[in-house]
Amino acid sequence: MPVLSPTWTDERIELLKQHFEAGLSCREIAADIGVSRNAVIGKLSRLNLTRGRTIDDRKVQDRPARAPRTVPRLQYEMLATIYGDTDAPVVAGPIDEANRCSLLELSENRCRWPISTPGAEDFCFCGNSAPDSQPYCSGHSRLAYRPNGRARVMRG
DNA sequence: CCCTGATTCGC
DNA sequence: GCGAATCAGG
Description:
InterPro entries: GcrA. By secondary structure, the chain is mostly helical. It has helices at about 10-20, 25-35, 35-45, 75-85, 140-145; strands spanning about 115, 125.
């Protein structure tokens, strides 16, 4: 891989679809793959994989001009915090799928991050060593929980 | 108040 | 086709 950076390759799309069907939020999927949330949503829309919102009445057709009102750079701040702000677009934390296990093999100190292999039908989990009272390992916990001050429980 | 989902538009 | 921008809803 000299200088090629294909945004959406087969594996990427498979992972996207698997995570989407797994019930993960677009933010989780984006963080896991390493792209922005809109990129995931855009790709899903292109693939006709919307979760269920076929609005018929198009009301947001009004496009007067680019009027920056509040500058929605919230995603960028979050992504930067997750990735380390000054590093390559890779998942932060020691995430290795060598310890992946099934749901039945999950323990209290095992990372419960859903791992979907783009080749097998078996759905596995991260299975890494997670600290006590923590559902994910150090790497995935950062993806699951927002580094912001508000610790809101995920609704997805 | 903020975040998530989906569509639309520019490149 | 991809990604950012935007809107609507929760």
